[in-house]
Design a protein that fits this description.
The protein is an all-alpha fold. The protein has one domain.
Length: 256
């Protein structure tokens, strides 16, 4: 049963990684904590090793459709990677319940921003997408620094911050934002894995199973995303994340 549940979790985070450009780690934490009953810090960091093959697999599917903005991604990683190390080390002195509630609140905030955007009329969304893209300025650098910190502190790969930043600040089309975020997540997960491994926050048996399960499912998720309209993707993204956030926060508030 333990193996089956882990494979199911791997499939879920793989598909979500490919479709939503988040690496899958943020969804994996509540699933591992609630379904497999892993302690908070293990549930937080164990999905990180799987985020690397998951992100690479999804990026390949997006790259074939020429949706990855490599220059944007490399700039984002240069700023975010040092902050990933800082955030990872801070988990050592942060109470478990704070980490779990912070994960849920992050999910809730990001899901609401996209759900609110997705609930606009199709004509309004199409007008937003028609706006010219912006240059990578100070606001984008700040957002990438936050993404890096969250990547280490909540072991989420940074995609939950990068996708909104790419869409709202740089005005990238949704699919390009997802694709570029996955490219960044694959790189940002590396220092997070190293630090969390040193802190003994990774269950390597579970991580190995997740890594095997996510590869085909992440590619599948990315292929699905390339076939959907940007508007549809934003609505699915916001709705799914909102449900997970409410569920996860409720579970941990009941434990207080």
């Amino acid at each position: 049963m333990h193996l089956f549940v882990t494979i199911v979790i791997g499939a879920i985070i793989g598909v979500s990684s490919g479709m939503f450009g988040i690496g899958g780690a943020l969804l994996a934490t509540p699933l591992l904590n609630v379904w497999l009953l892993l302690p908070a810090k293990l549930a937080l960091a164990t999905p990180l090793p799987a985020a690397i093959p998951s992100s690479i697999s999804g990026s390949i599917a997006y790259a074939r459709n020429r949706l990855v903005r490599y220059q944007v991604g490399l700039r984002a990683v240069m700023v975010a990677m040092p902050m990933t190390v800082v955030g990872s080390y801070l988990t050592k002195v942060t109470p478990d319940v704070v980490l779990m509630v912070a994960t849920g609140l992050t999910l809730l905030f990001v899901s609401w921003t996209f759900l609110r955007r997705g609930l606009r009329k199709d004509s309004e969304l199409e007008a937003l997408e028609a706006l010219p893209e912006r240059a990578f300025g100070m606001e984008a650098y700040l957002a990438c620094a936050v993404a890096g910190f969250m990547s280490g502190f909540l072991a989420i790969g940074g995609g939950m911050v990068l996708v909104p930043a790419f869409v709202k600040i740089l005005r990238l089309p949704m699919k390009s934002a997802l694709a570029t975020s996955l490219f960044c997540v694959a790189l940002l997960a590396l220092p997070g894995v190293v630090v969390h491994a040193m802190l003994e926050h990774i269950d390597w048996n579970v991580a190995l199973i997740l890594s095997i399960a996510v590869i085909p499912m992440s590619y599948l998720g990315a292929r699905i995303a390339t076939r959907l309209r940007n508007v549809t993707l934003e609505r699915i993204y916001g709705g799914v994340m909102m449900l997970f956030a409410i569920y996860f926060i409720t579970v941990h508030l009941l434990d207080l």
